[in-house]
Amino acid sequence: MPPGGGGPMKDCEYSQISTHSSSPMESPHKKKKIAARRKWEVFPGRNKFFCNGRIMMARQTGVFYLTLILILVTSGLFFAFDCRYLAEKITPAIPVVGGILFFFVMGTLLRTSFSDPGVLPRATPDEAADLERQIDIANGTSSGGYRPPPRTKEVVINGQTVKLKYCFTCKIFRPPRASHCSLCDNCVEQFDHHCPWVGNCVGKRNYRFFYMFILSLSFLTVFIFAFVITHVIHRSQQKGFLDALKDSPASVLEAVICFFSVWSIIGLSGFHTYLISSNQTTNEDIKGSWSNKRGKENYNPYSYGNIFTNCCVALCGPISPSLIDRRGYVQPDTPQPAAPSNGITMYGATQSQSDMPLAFSASKELRPPECATRS
Length: 375
Hints:
membrane, elongated, single chain, 10 helices, 47% helix, acyltransferase, alpha+beta, 375 residues
C-alpha cells in the first residue's frame, strides 16, 4: 500500500466499523432516537392523546361527539332561526346572553374532556417488586407461589378509619377516595365517575369543570327552550299557530330536543350540587361509604361541616398539578418515577406496611392534616 493511500482507506474502514458493529459506539445514536419519544406514546392506560400529549381523553369518544353535535345543532338552529326575530321584536339582549352561555358551555365541556382527571402514576417494576417483597414479609409469606388475599391498609383521617386498597394493575396502594377506572385502566385520584358524555373520567382535576358544564348546560337548555316557545307564541298571535310553525320549522326541532333533555340535565345538576355541598363523590354516594347504616359513628371525614366551605373548596380551591408527565421524554436507561419530582409524594409504592406514614399530598385538601396509619 502506498503511504499516501493508507489514510483514506483506514478512515473508511473505521467508519464502517463504527456504524455497523454492535459496540457501544452506536448506542448514543439509538438512545437519542429512543429518548425522543414522549411519555404519552408509551402510556400504559387506555387513553387517546392529541396535540403531542396536550389533550388526554378516553378511547371511547363516540358519545362525546354526540354531545358536541346536540349542543352545536340546537344552539346553531336557535341563533340562526330564532335570535334574529327575538332581537327585533323583544330585545337584542337575548342573543348576547345566549352567546355567553353557549361559549361557557363549550369551554367547560372541552376543559373537562381534554384534561387529565387526576390519573395516578403506576409503580415502576423495581418499585412494584420492592412493595411486593415488603408485603410478603409483613404477611409472613415467602416469595413462593402463595398469593396473599387482597391487601388493604387503614389510615385515620379526621378521626374516621379509611381503608386503602392495593391496585394489582397499578401496583400501588390507592390514596383515599381514589379508584381504578375499568374503562380507562387508570387509578384516578378522588374518582367521581367515568362519563361517556364528556369522553373522560371525572376526578380531582376536572370535577369543577364538569360541574360548571352541566350547570351552565342546564341554564342554556332552559334558556333556549323558553325563548323558542316565546318565539312560536309571538308568531302565532300574528299568523296563527300552524302558520307560525311553518315559518320556523327549526323551532319545533329545538323544542323537542330541549324538552326531552332538560329534565335529565337539571336532575344531574341538582344531584352534583348536593354532592358538592356535602363534599362527596358519586362513587362514595353510590357505595354508601358514609351512610349511617354502616355504623352509628360513620361520618364523612372530608366534609368541612359547612355547605359554603365545601362548595368553595370544590369550586374555588387550587387545582393540583398533574402527576403524569405526559409530554416528558422517556429515559430508556433510568426507571421512570411514579410521580414527578416536584415535591409530590407517591402513595405508598415503596413504603413498608408497618412504618408507612403515607405522606399524603392529598392531605392538603383535608381540614386538619391528622393522618395516622394502622398496620
